Amino acid sequence: MKVAVLRFSALGDLASLRPYLLALSERPVLITTPMGVALYEDDVDRFLVLKSKTWQNHLSLIREVRRERFDLLIDMQQNDRSRLVRTLSGARKVIARRPEDLSSLGVIWQQMLAPSGLLRAPDMSFAAKPRNYVVLNMGSSQKWLSKRLPDAKWVEIASFLHGRFGLPFLLTGDASERAYVERLATLLPGRTENKAGQTDLNELKRLLQGAFLTVSTDSAAMHLSASMKTPTIGIFGATNWQKSGPVGPWTRAVYDHTYYPGGVPPSLSQTERRAYYEHVDVSEAVESLMPYLSLAV
């Protein structure tokens, strides 16, 4: 059976899909972007790549897809571009219906892949991580400054983790955030290394895969860390932790119970900067992850 899975972006959603994509009993061809190729090059044998958003590239991709004569195409993207590709794909069968239950990314991916009949139980086994370093992913794009924690909160988190584990910190973010991360680095206890803007996607994967623990804003790095089966704590406030929390039993999503006393997340992501994180506490999440962290070698 010749199977294709279509997923273009974004990096966080691509990363959170990983355990479910790898659980398919038939190895699929992944229809994706260059970012998807970089993320999945170790997991997927073949790619069909949308190199850019131009109409010429869309038409070129459609021709490639049609030549493949897929038995099944699963559209995990669900937008106008993917609708065009799947409609003209020539595939014998197409799965494109989004689930009504959007409670979490894991539920979304499971319910979208289940109708194929190819989805096995995702591999949720866990291997011990090296006790080398803790990743603090502090970054957020300029569009999502609402996801940034107050400086004092990062100092509080780092102080707790340093006292608990005594490990150095690797700080991550993109190139535009390097100065911001560098300023925070001067405030943190222990040994720090600013890797913001210093890693391509493959290097970031390796860094996150080798981490003892990742603590992150709601970001692609958080989902990527979870997909690497690294114990991961995602810090939420401006976005929905129930829908967008990291996937895997080795992960936890935390939020400010004072700001959200009823535990109900915002229905829409908030871009305005507010006091979402003043009372966020990662200590309980760390303790709940100790069955994984205590295995570290």
Q: Would you kindly provide a written description of the structure presented here, covering whatever features stand out?
A:
By secondary structure, the chain is of the alpha/beta class. Helices cover 35% and strands 14% of the residues. It contains 12 helices and 11 strands. A 6-stranded parallel beta sheet has the order 8-7-6-9-10-11, sandwiched between helices. The longest helix has 15 residues. It is elongated and about 60 Å long. The chain starts with a strand and ends with a helix.
Helix content: 25-40%
Q: Which value, in Å, is the CA radius of gyration?
A: 20 Å
Low-pLDDT runs: none
Q: Specify the CATH class of the largest domain.
A: Alpha Beta
Q: CATH topology of the largest domain, what is it called?
A: Rossmann fold
Question: What is the distance, rounded to the nearest whole angstrom, between the alpha carbons of the first and last residues?
Answer: 42 Å
Total beta strand runs: 11
Q: How would you spell out the order of helices and strands? A: EHEHEHEHEHEHEHEHEHEHEHH
Strand content range:
5-15%
Query: What is the average per-residue confidence, as pLDDT, rounded to a whole number?
Result: 94
